[in-house]
């Protein structure tokens, strides 16, 4: 069975995690990184989840899961090894057509959570469709080594330049050509080496406006 790769906008959307251990913590951390409104259902929480609950970062229902707990949820994660609870969560989510991930039980998932590397707004995701989370984790580590913090700054730079290019009114084809010219150079390598002079020169050649050069200075200072 194939899974369709997609990025979800979870900001402020209700997401439910059933379970309070280490697996649940990792899932919750990923959801909070996307600004989701997280509810955790478990009679116990691991230390970090308890800290997040005290800080108000999540809502904690201090009890076992009950049918009806998923009402209104956008996304559900069953992060418990209790097979009976997994089956009940699956039944409710399936009945109500909810997005569901059951940790380590691919047959009950309509949503697979990929291994993710985040560099600011850049997300690099690897999924094996649930066949081998260990391989996905290994590939994620390789991506972490290949794509460092310079890509966070690169994306911030390109995001700042984009409205300036579009605002020139050159039309779609002209804009696309400029965007391709921008990324054709080794901007990430120059940023990693601290060669902002080369970045500035390249941006000046591609765009040339004082506003564009100001974006380079701002991103450099943020780095």
List the uncertain runs. none
* Strand neighbour order, sheet with most strands: 3-2-1-4-5
**Total number of helices:** 9
Structural class determined from secondary elements: alpha/beta
Ends apart, CA distance between termini:
43 Å
Number of strands: 7
> What is the arithmetic mean of pLDDT?
95
Task: Report the major sheet.
Answer: 5 strands, parallel
Envelope shape: elongated
Q: What is the CATH C level class of the largest domain, in words? A: Alpha Beta
Predict the CATH topology of the largest domain. Answer: Rossmann fold
Q: How much helicity do the residues have? A: 40-55%
Please, what is the CATH homologous superfamily of the largest domain? NAD(P)-binding Rossmann-like Domain
Q: What is the CATH-assigned architecture of the largest domain? A: 3-Layer(aba) Sandwich
Strand percentage: 5-15%
Radius of gyration: 22 Å
Summarize the helix and strand pattern as letters: EHEHEEHEEEHHHHHH
Overall structural domain count: 3
Pathway: Porphyrin-containing compound metabolism; siroheme biosynthesis; sirohydrochlorin from precorrin-2: step 1/1
Domain Siroheme synthase central: 119-145
Protein name: precorrin-2 dehydrogenase
Catalytic activity: precorrin-2 + NAD(+) = sirohydrochlorin + NADH + 2 H(+)
């Amino acid at each position: 069975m194939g899974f369709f790769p997609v990025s979800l906008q979870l900001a402020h959307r209700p997401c439910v995690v059933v379970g309070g251990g280490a697996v649940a913590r990792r899932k919750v951390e990923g959801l909070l990184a996307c600004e989701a409104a997280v509810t955790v259902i478990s009679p116990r929480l691991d230390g970090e989840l308890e800290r997040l609950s005290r800080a108000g970062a999540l809502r904690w229902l201090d009890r076992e899961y009950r049918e009806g707990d998923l009402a209104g949820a956008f996304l559900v994660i069953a992060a418990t090894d209790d097979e009976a609870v997994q089956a009940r969560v699956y039944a409710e989510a399936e009945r109500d057509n909810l997005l569901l991930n059951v940790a380590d039980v691919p047959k009950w998932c309509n949503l697979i959570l990929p291994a993710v590397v985040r560099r600011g707004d850049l997300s690099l995701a690897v999924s094996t469709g649930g066949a081998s989370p260990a391989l996905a984790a290994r590939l994620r580590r390789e991506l972490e080594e290949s794509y460092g913090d310079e890509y966070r700054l690169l994306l911030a730079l390109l995001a700042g330049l984009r409205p300036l290019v579009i605002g020139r009114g050159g039309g779609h084809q002209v804009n696309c050509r400029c965007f391709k010219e921008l990324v054709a150079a080794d901007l990430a390598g120059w940023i990693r080496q601290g060669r902002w002079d080369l970045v500035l020169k390249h941006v000046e050649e591609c765009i040339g406006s004082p506003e564009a050069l100001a974006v380079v200075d701002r991103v450099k200072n943020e780095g």
